[in-house]
Amino acid sequence: MAVALRYSPPSHLSFSSPKLHKFSFNPSHSPSSLSPSHFSRRFNTAQTLRFPSKARSITPVAEGISTELSEIYQSCKIWNWRGFNISYLVKGNGPPLLLVHGFGASIPHWRRNIGILSQKATVYAIDLLGFGASDKPPGFAYTMETWAQLILDFLAEVVKKPTVLVGNSVGGLACVIAASDSNGDLVRGLVLLNCAGGMNNKAIVDDWRIKLIMPLLWLVDFLLKQRRIASAIFERVKQRENLKNILISVYGNKEAVDEDLIEIIRRPADDDGALDAFVSTVTGPPGPSPISLMPKISVPVLVLWGDQDPFTPIDGPVGKYFSSLPAKIPNLKLFILPGTGHCPHDDRPDLVHEKLIPWLETTS
């Protein structure tokens, strides 16, 4: 989901403001080319084996969650990737598609999509390293390229068929990177739901809104690298009422923000290593830009964009770029979803399914 815990404060807010919805999160980017050697530079295999986390049960322990959410938790399996436990779900029969969540979210964020999509497809959903029920190794340096490589390895080792990638926010960008690096035998289509421009906002330097608060973003980076300060911020952000306020500010359909959604975001934030994932993502390198990668993608692409997204607005640099693509790329379709925020699939799933399901049938 691109919802959860990224820092993207409005310009009128200050550190003294008690409204912690300013500690929301928003991914964005700077251009960069990608090559196999780039992957090897940014993703150190030895590093991934240095901090293996203890395997955990992923059965639900929280009380008061819905039966639907409980069933999702109980259906998840574990795949071992480079010494780490990665949680995933598979349901249905048909051409495969892989759902990839955004920052701070996890598999259950697709709660309103898995059942419908699995009627005509084999639906896979994955928790990226550092999120959901997947391992959260302490001290790990997260990068967009790491998540993209995880996706490609999952397709090669688990799915083993050409797959449509469906990603939201940072998950969408990870899918773009993966698709641009695939030789065509792993990825057969790409669906982007309010794709992020980067792992964090610092790279969107051509947006006046980011320029205005850039000094504040660098200050936040500095503060988050102080362990005690970062821990205090994180503890306040993940309080239920604060999470609810963040989510309400992100969603166009406020009624979609229910107790299950708050639990989906809050629960993994209590895991060991969750703070490290938060800090690394907010303060780390933004990674490759979709603007530099989209021209490399030849598979069919569907772009769905909520018009009330405060993180990657349609009138921002990333939104404007994707809006221009239908005139440049014949096999790309773009639809603007009215009254929808940063996470269209959970915000207004009916609008997403209305465009997604017919498109999937054309790619089968």
UniProtKB/TrEMBL annotation:
GO terms under cellular component: chloroplast
GO biological process, one term: chlorophyll metabolic process
Highest taxon of the lineage: Eukaryota
Molecular functions (GO terms): chlorophyllase activity
Domain AB hydrolase-1 positions: 95-349
PANTHER family (UniProt xref): ALPHA/BETA-HYDROLASES SUPERFAMILY PROTEIN, ALPHA_BETA-HYDROLASES SUPERFAMILY PROTEIN
Protein name, as recorded: AB hydrolase-1 domain-containing protein
Organism: Rhynchospora breviuscula
